[in-house]
Amino acid sequence: MITISEHTLSRLFNQTKPHVAERSEAEAVQILVFDYDGTHLHAWATNRYTLAVARTKAEGSDEPWTVVVERKNLPDLQAAIRLLDKKPIAIEKAADRIVLSGETGTRIGIELSTSITPLNWRKIVHPALDRKANATPMDLNPSFFGAWKGLPGPVSMWSTGENQVSLVLAADFIGLQMPVRRSVSEDAHQRELDSWRPAKTAALAAAA
């Protein structure tokens, strides 16, 4: 069993749930994953375009573990969090469920997936951390920008290189946003950029 502070499980959930894939995507990414490494409880999710990892320190003597909650069971998890989150929450891992319990003695079991093996988020995030911030323009899909709105400010974001992921960093949170292929040529992109530059003095005089 591990225990986390009040108001932290809701933070982990709210910061990662927007990154769970939609029902039209593969079942393997329609999940929210919790993993305990002996010090921190991490929650993470990915829709293959963004990846979000939130963490909090946990007290307990458990060996490291990982559990997978499928999209269909997220409403039950959210309801349990709303009921218990105002006080510290104890989390027990069982074979097919995690059990959340509060100081009042309330115990709520959340069904787990036993058939989905999640990817190792560390193998994706850690190499990105080794890349230096890059001044290369980032081509991103704005439809995913809203997924970051639950983060506490300030939020830092930077490119790790051409056609590489962009990193998103906040307190006890790290995320990645994948690049997209630019739909216009480099010349057209430059012309659009140049069109926003201040007009030359001569041009202003001619227009006067």
How does this structure look, described?
A seven-stranded antiparallel beta sheet has the order 6-2-3-4-12-11-10, with helices on both faces. 22% of the residues lie in helices and 29% in strands. It folds into two domains: 2-111, DNA Polymerase III, subunit A, domain 2 (DNA Polymerase III, Chain A, domain 2, Roll); 121-194, no CATH class. It has five helices and twelve strands. By secondary structure, it is of the alpha+beta class. It starts with a strand and ends with a helix.
Strand and helix map with partners:
Elements: E1 2-4, H1 8-16, E2 31-36, E3 40-46, E4 50-57, E5 59-60, E6 65-70, H2 74-84, E7 89-93, E8 97-101, E9 107-111, H3 121-129, E10 156-159, E11 166-170, E12 173-177, H4 186-194, H5 201-207
In a few lines, what is going on in this structure?
With 208 residues, the chain is α+β, with helices and mostly antiparallel strands. It is built from 5 helices and 12 strands.
